[in-house]
Amino acid sequence: MKTFNCLLMLLGLLFLASSCSEDSNLGTTSNDYCYIKSVVLGNVKRKVELRDRRGQLISTTNTSFTGSNFAMTINLRDNTIENRDSLPYGSQISRVIVSITFDGSMLAYREKGSDAEWTAYNATDSLDLTKPLELYLTSNDKQSSRIYTFKVNVHQQEGDSLYWKQCESEVEQLAGLEEMKAFPMNDKLMVLGKKTSDIILSERSSIEAEGTWEEALTTGLPTTTDLQTLRQQDGNYYLSTTDGSIFSSVDAKDWQQVGTTYSAGLTLVEKTADYFYAISEGKLLRSTDAESWEEDQLDTEATMLPTSEIRVLSVQQANGNNRIIMVGQREGSNNAVVWNKMWNESEPEAEAEWIYFPISPDNLIPCPRLQYLNLMSYDGKCLAFGGASEDASHKALDAMYFSQDYGITWRASNELHLPIDLEGTEGCVTSTVDKNNFIWIITNAQVWRGRLNRLGFAQ
User: Fold this and answer.
1) pLDDT band at 10, cuts 50/70/90?
2) For site-directed labelling of 344, which of 12, 121, 307, 331 has its Cα 20 to 30 A away?
């Protein structure tokens, strides 16, 4: 390492001369260049800690990653260099090899804001990047100079951790509600539920951490309405009844019947832009207008269709495919029943058949049959959780089950956990995901809110 006392004198002399940036502002050019062309980080060490749902440390792993995967942005307007995509939580940046290419004769550095002597840059020496640095560059003719601020950003939260906050407890407007169904509406959180002979809409003023609740009676919905069939399409909400009717609303308060009452009870499965899908008397039906119904195509016997606790997700895959994932229960099975319907340009929706995912001996991780099953799309995967399992092998709200193959296999996450205070909680539980990627859980008049950290990182 070589220090430069003479640089202090040079700084004084250069004060009288025009710097590179000053030259460009004045519209003139210097005799030679002095600018940094690229900055690339070498390998970066990282300490990864694995903790259980109670926050207890399970293990620590020391690893490393390629720093060049995190591009450093050079801003020539304000002479700053930093990475827009922060390094992962736990990155150790006190000793990092940094490759800097530049046009000029001499590059030196020191901690930003200090009056320490400048240290000559050497490509083989490691730098302490825990604090911002100043990079001092002179041109080949020694007549111009430029000082950059070099900063490396590191996430201050573990991206793959999910933290929960109890927003409210003992919410009066939620007390006593049964068969609850939560959903976001614009910037509000809504909960439909039944209380005695009424269907109540409880409305939270905000999807932020703080909010207030109001309660309103719905109009137009009969007591036979199955609130778990709530579906949304193009700004309209839809529900079905156990006596064969479908209702719609734009505000979830005032409801009107769609089409005509079917000859038997209906369980609305999904509403797409073109079709209503419903299960009735062991058949999977579809209709364009909720008046005329026809059987949709299945790849196996209809006897394998779910009969209760039907939950549905609609997703658009990265390749453009549209897919409906249906999860439900059948008597005599300790595991959930899963069906899919997928369509695209080559196989339109009207021609696509429903595909059954059988529980086979080589699939040891199917979705358990849970009471009050909650199903949602989260972090590009299917997420399920709920009350106690049918075979009593799982306590209520003890795990989050993720599927990356649209419902074939479901793994209980070892890293993402539900609120520890809710484990074993009995009774109705409902949940939803808002536009900011927060998961909301509502049970026993309590309201919880949590998000996977990296889904909240600035892009």
Assistant:
1) very low
2) 307
From CA 128, how far away is CA 431, in angstroms rounded? 45
More confident residue, 70 or 23: 70
Total of domains in the chain: 2
Look up residue 327 and give its two tokens.
């999860």
**H helix or E strand, kind and range, residue 249:** strand 246-249
Largest interatomic CA distance in the chain: 95
Residue with tokens 């000053």: 22
Q: 1 lies in a domain?
A: no
Residue 346 token pair: 């080559």
243 and 137 within one domain: no
**What CATH number is attached to the domain comprising 362?**
2.120.10.10
339: left (phi over 0), alpha (psi -120 to 50) or beta: beta
Residue 157 within any structural domain of the chain: no
Percent with pLDDT over 70 in the chain:
92
Does any domain span residue 53? Answer: yes
Range of the domain at 285: 162-456
> Do 285 and 385 have their domain in common?
yes
Instruction: Name the pairing type of β-strands 145-151 and 80-83.
Output: parallel
Which residues, 6 or more positions from 47, have their beta carbon under 8 angstroms from its beta carbon? 60, 61, 62, 63, 90, 92
What is the residue-averaged pLDDT of the chain? 89
Q: Are residues 185 and 69 in the same domain?
A: no
Tokens of 359: 């529980």
Eight-state DSSP code of residue 234:
T
- CA 31 – CA 18 distance, rounded (Å): 11
List, in sequence order, every beta strand (DSSP E) within 205-331.
213-217, 225-233, 236-241, 246-249, 256-258, 267-271, 276-280, 283-287, 294-295, 308-316, 322-329
Last residue of a domain, one of 123, 151, 179: 151
Helix then strand then coil, % of the chain, to nearest 5: 5, 45, 45
Name the DSSP letter for residue 159. T
For the stretch 190-229, pLDDT in tens is: 999 999 889 999 999 999 999 999 999 999 999 999 999 9
Cα–chain-centroid distance for residue 223? 35
Amino acid symbol at 83? N
CATH number at residue 60: 2.60.40
326 shares a domain with 301: yes
pLDDT on residue 2? 38
d(CA 101, CA 171): 60
Which of 131, 151, 171 is where one domain is finished?
151
Q: Tell me: do 195 and 147 sit in the same domain.
A: no
On the 0-12 / 13-18 / 19+ scale of CB atoms within 10 A, 145 is buried
Q: Quick one: which H or E segment has residue 407?
A: none
Structure tokens given for 364: 């040891």
- Mapping DSSP onto H, E and C, the string for 38-64 reads EEEECEEEEEEEEECCCCCEEEEEEEE
Which one-letter DSSP state was computed for residue 221?
Answer: -
74 residue type, one letter: I
